[in-house]
Design goal:
With about 260 residues, the chain is an alpha+beta fold. It has one domain: Creatine Amidinohydrolase (Alpha-Beta Complex), CATH 3.90.230. The strands form five sheets. Strands 1, 2, 4 and 5 form a four-stranded antiparallel β-sheet that branches. α1 crosses α2 and α3 runs antiparallel to α4. Bound molecules: 2-amino-4-trifluoromethylsulfanyl-butyric acid and cobalt (II) ion (2 copies). The site of 2-amino-4-trifluoromethylsulfanyl-butyric acid has 12 residues, from β4.
Amino acid sequence: MTAKVTTNIEIDGMRTAGRLAAEVLEMIEEHIIPGITTEDIDKICHSYIVETLGCIPAPLNYSNGPGQIPFPKSICTSVNHVVCHGIPTSKKTLKSGDIVNIDITVIKNGFHGDTSKMFYVGTPGILAKRLVRVTQECLYKGINVVKPGARLGDIGHAIQKHAEAQRFSVVREFCGHGIGTVFHDDPQIVHYGQPNTGLLIEEGMTFTIEPMINAGSRNVKILPDRWTVVTKDHKLSAQWEHTIMVTADGAEVLTKRKDEGF
Ligand code: MF3
Ligand code: CO
Ligand code: CO
C-alpha cells in the first residue's frame, strides 16, 4: 500500500510525528563536539525521545524481514565513509574534522516522523563541507519538484543532476520511502532517474527523500554486522532526510527544523 494521508486525524498525526523528530535533531546539536561517542549520542536521544517527547524510537529492535538482525540502538549515527545505518557504539569517539549523519525516526500515536542531518565535529575540511552542502542542496532540489502531477522520476533526476554536476555520485542501493503508520512503505523514492517517468505524485502522499551522496564512486558494501553501510572506496558520504506531505500545489516539509526557511 502506498502511504497516503486522507483524514484530518492522519494529517495531524503525521505533522506531530514530523515535528517531534525534528526537535530531536535540534536538541542534539550542542552535544556534537570532539570527544563524545556515538553511544553517548544514542543515549541522549533515546531518553529525550522516550521521556521528554513520549515517543517510541522506531529503529530500536527494528528488522526489515525474517532472518534480519534487529537494529540494536535507537538512532543511526553514520560517520565519514559510513553511508547510512551506522550503529552507535562506545568505541566510536568523534574527533575534530569528522562528519556525522544522525538519523532519527520517532513514532507518536502510531505515526512515523523520519529525518536526518549532517553535523560537523569541530572544524570540517574543504571537501567535507562541499559534500555536506551539495547533499543538502540535493534534498532541497528533490523537495522543490514535488507537486501533484509530477512523477517520482522528476525527484530522482533533480537530485542526480545536481550531485553529478559537482562530480559526486548517488548511492543506488538505498532510497526514500512511503511513510505513515508503517515505517518503510511503498513507494520507493530513488535518488536518480529520468524526468517524467515513474509513479504519478498525488496530493496527500507522505514519503521521505533522503539522498546519500558519495565523494568518490557510488559503490557501497555492508559490514559483517549486517547493518552498517560504507563506501567501497572509503571516501566520504553524506545524507540529509526529510519526511514530506504532498499538498495541493507542492510539498509540506513535516520534519522542518527552526534553522530552515522553506
Ligand atoms: N531511518 C532510516 C531511514 O531513513 C532507517 C533506519 S532503519 C534502522 O529509512 F533500523 F537502521 F534504524
Ligand atoms: Co527514511
Ligand atoms: Co531516516
